[in-house]
Design a protein that fits this description.
Strands 1, 2, 3, 4, 5, 6, 7, 8, 9 and 10 form a 10-stranded mixed β-sheet that branches. It is globular and about 55 Å long. The longest helix has 12 residues. It is of the alpha+beta class.
Length: 250
Amino acid sequence: MNNLNILFEDDDIIALNKPSGLLVHPSWIAPRGTPNLASMLKEYFNGGSPYTIHRLDRPTSGVILFGKNKEIAQKMNLLFAERNVEKTYLCMVRGYTPEADLIDYALKEELDKIADKHASKDKEAQEAVSEYRRLATVELDIPVGRYEKSRYSLVEVKPKTGRKHQIRRHMKHIFHPIIGDTNHGDNKHNKSFRENFDLQRLMLMASNIKFEHPVTQQMMDISAPVDQYTDQLFKKFAWDGLYLSEQTLI
């Protein structure tokens, strides 16, 4: 049996805590046979196929939902499309952010060089809105660039739309990129965290999801604890108690 971290399961839906670095589906960018959640679920279902409800980027960890049948997946897809699902993310970013703000900044669709090579590159930017609040800050006696000290914030983000890499691109837009983001981040700070804290992941976690179950009409509130590395890192910054960890669940 493969090692799935199941947060919730009933006859219709299964919620998993996806680790950073694990693919959701097989991908042309990864060698054949690379582990992925869809294949692991198929084995868990004894050959049954999981139905995609939404996605998480490979480097992002946290709550992800799959449907056990086509009908529930379609109903859940509609909830997402009508913005009746509240998603909450946790991230660590460069600098001290404002205490809270709403980022309303349209984003052009990010196209993949191979998978989207025939797609139009002239599409207009799409509405993209993210609400965030700062949970904590830390100042480290570690020089980065021309600064003798480095500052970081722990931020909670609630995206109101679902554009590709929305949170990563929005945090970059306000000059507070996410640590560990090799595409939209700050290479100097990423390097500092690799050298000083052995950082090997993107510091973006899907921490919570809320929605009304399409079958039971029960209000679902599913949270995922951060991984052991993130928990230990955040404790060094005295941020424990501000997020869900495995120890919180004991």
